[in-house]
Amino acid sequence: MKKKLLVPILALGILFTTVSFKGDFFEIAKQIEIFTTLFKELNMNYVDETTPSDLMNKAIKGMLADLDPYTVYWNEQEVEDARINNSGMYTGIGATVRNKDKKMIIIEPFKGFPADKAGLKSGDQIIKIGDITISDFEGDASELLKGASDSNINISYLRQGKTEKTTLTRGAIDVHAVPFYKLINGNVGYIVLSKFNRKTTLETKAALEDLKNQGATKIILDLRGNPGGLLTEAINIVNLFVPKGESIVTTKSVIKKYNKTYKTSKQPIDTEIPLVVLVNGRSASASEIVSGGLQDLDRAVIIGARSFGKGLVQRPKPLTYGTQLKVTISRYYTPSGRCIQALDYWNRDENGDPIRVEAKEYSAFKTKGGRTVYDGGGIMPDIELETGKFSPITTALLKDEAIFDYATDYYYSHTLENWKDFSFTESDFQKFLQYLKTNNFEYETETEKEFEKALRKAKTEKLDKEILASYTQLMNSVDTAKEKALEDKKHEIITLLSDEILKRYFYRDGMYNYHLTHSPEILKALELLDNPKKHNAILK
After folding, report:
1. pTM of structure
2. What's the pLDDT tens digit per position in 227-268?
3. Residue range 337-360, pLDDT digits in tens
4. For the chain, what is the domain count?
5. Strand, coil or helix: what is 217?
6. In a domain, 4, yes or no
7. Nearest C-alpha neighbor of 225 from the set 184, 274, 283
8. Whether residues 385 and 396 fall in one domain
9. 97 lies in which domain range?
């Protein structure tokens, strides 16, 4: 018996919503009709059972695959997740979790919130929520953690191989955009800005004013690891330090209505206070608008490593049945005219990969005061530090959770009473390297992935036997190179290990306090701010 066709209204909604109607209307209608009839015939005639929703999801992903990675389809739950992320408020257990391979792992419980009060720790594997076993659950298991405020939830979890149980009460979770700020050295205000949601300007302004009242005459704004967020909040953050009426961002698109210049619209808090901004390779989007704007206006010295390089602007477009399309609508440009987009998704190489502009092809631009700055992807700091960079080997360790898992092991085998007493020694690093070998961590580099892809292709062409010996030798060379890279990038790795370990014992407060006396970027910023002549010389 043939199953009934589910009419692909969703597909029609997506196509009609995303199409720019400046084109040929007949061609648009023609393509929609082709797709509709194909979808119908496929569902009614394919030899095996098919699920219309699965086919449609794959069709949507295929349609978007060759565009940039920021143009994505959101189902109803993803729409809600985006709303929560932008608002900074939600109801739940107060912890970040990772769902992978039918496993739910606690990544970080937030201090003072339900998960923390119930005793859950980073590294705990939740195996059961209420009567539902996570490994048997189809769909996003993290949804089971959400619910009405003050409602109870029973959880079973694995910790160091032992099953534990706890009951917690869901509550309102307040995600701070400014998780930490402090007066240091008596006159330097340090502010960590971790995300750009609807509370970002309010919290940053409050922190800045409080620090000034405490006696701050210099400011360090830390945007390291900040992935971005709301464009308007980025404009408002720059506005705290520059006069009303300054152009901060210009957006450009083939669609005229998206061509716009965003200017500061309010009176600033302080246009004179010496300012340093910290960035690294994980500072993206709105973080780059802030750092790029302050750099181009000669208002702040930027310290760290080149930022991520996301110069594209997205806007959510409502579709049918509560879904949305988050679509890239324009590129943005800093006050000097730079587009800091690192990868060109519209012009790809012979392998289909987006092109990255080489350093020799960077274009020069002038700041408001006449300093030379460059495009080419990301914001290049005025003072660049090797310690702020992230190498491929470090990225691989993060992706494969090697650093996270080692921090869990460290926590249950070490006692630490005060963050001031913490030190990750050379001996500890060697133990980490041994831990990787003992636990067979197969962190995979992009090079290895490409080689493995080539071997699979060779097998299909019956060439694998002839090249297997060479392939094995090549992979052994890669392993040797990886071991050397681990030593070469020791400082990067130790920094990430230290952060992950400190959070286990002392939450983020302890980690940030530790940074104040150990982070090379913060120490460099303090050194610069203590030398007004050098600080001013950089900006002039």
Report:
1. 0.88
2. 999 999 999 999 999 999 999 999 999 899 999 999 999 999
3. 999 898 888 888 777 788 887 777
4. 4
5. coil
6. no
7. 283
8. no
9. 89-174
